[in-house]
Amino acid sequence: MSMSCSDVVTICGLFAVQCIYGLYMMFLSALLAAGVPSLFITVVACAASSIVVLPFALALERVSIYQSHRDARCGTHLAGDRLRHA
């Protein structure tokens, strides 16, 4: 039984996510045991994830704006236009 490269990458990714989640739970339980308020942890975690995700969101938004402008210039943004030109 031979596994393809994509199967190995998928399995390694799933394993890495489980390891990261386990480390996060250990860190979180230590913080809660130290007496840090859970609301503070929630606010800091949401702010940190927002900072991490923001560059990707901006990049995807720029790509989608570029594609919508390009489609509008070419006249392919409406399904009716595609059918009329075909």
Describe the sheet with the most strands.
none
Which sequence of SSEs, written as H and E, runs from N to C? Answer: HHH
Count of distinct strands? 0
Helix content: over 70%
Rg, rounded, reads: 23 Å
Alpha-beta classification: mainly alpha
Count of all domains: 2
Q: Mean pLDDT, nearest integer?
A: 85
Oligomerization state: single chain
* Morphology: flat
Percentage of residues in DSSP E strands: under 5%
Number of helices: 3
Low-confidence residue ranges: none
Cα separation of the termini: 47 Å
Descriptive overview:
This is WAT1-related protein. Keywords: Membrane, Transmembrane, Transmembrane helix. The chain crosses the membrane at residues 12-33, 39-60. It comes from Miscanthus lutarioriparius. The structure is a single chain. The chain folds into 2 domains: 1-36; 37-86. The longest helix is centred in the middle third of the chain and has 37 residues, at 38-74. It contains 3 helices and no strands. Helices cover 85% and strands 0% of the residues. The protein is flat, with a radius of gyration of 23 Å. It is mostly helical and 86 residues long.
Quick overview of this protein structure:
This is WAT1-related protein. With 86 residues, the protein is mainly α. The protein has 3 helices and no strands.
Give structural attributes:
transmembrane; 2 domains; 86 residues; mainly alpha
SSE topology sketch:
Elements: H1 5-33, H2 38-74, H3 79-85
